[in-house]
Every structure is written in C-alpha cells, then in structure tokens.
Design a protein that fits this description.
This protein has helices at about 1-35, 40-65. By secondary structure, it is mostly helical. The chain is elongated and about 55 Å long.
C-alpha cells in the first residue's frame, strides 16, 4: 500500500514538473525572441527549446521509472 502511494506521488510530481517545463519553454522562447537582437533572435529560442526538451525528458524518465521490488 505504501509503495502505491509513493508511486502515485512520484507520478503526480513528474507530471506537474513536466507541465511547468513546457510552460517555461513557451514563455522563454517568447522572451528570447523579443529580448535579443541579430542572430541571437534565432539562436536563443532554439537553445531554450533544446534545454526545455532535455528537462522534459528528465521528468519523463522519472515518471517512467520502474519500482524496486
């Protein structure tokens, strides 16, 4: 029973962190577009997107983690 509760808490926290990462990436891309000049208007949003995908991947790895028996 306790294992199921921990599993549920881990899944909920990973889903919340994934949603926060996606929201942060969208906001970060807009800020990166409008706050930079020149070539950085193209490079900065791509970097924000790559970092966001990496963080979302980490959240996915945590939620997909198998439990130890």
């Amino acid at each position: 029973m306790q294992l199921r509760i921990f599993r549920l808490i881990r899944k909920v926290l990973s889903e919340i962190s994934g949603a926060l990462v996606i929201s942060g990436v969208v906001i970060g891309i807009f800020i990166a577009i409008f706050a930079n000049e020149g070539a950085m208007r193209i490079i900065a949003p791509i970097l924000v997107f790559v970092v966001g995908v990496g963080l979302y991947w980490l959240a996915w790895i945590i939620s997909a983690k198998e439990d130890r028996n």
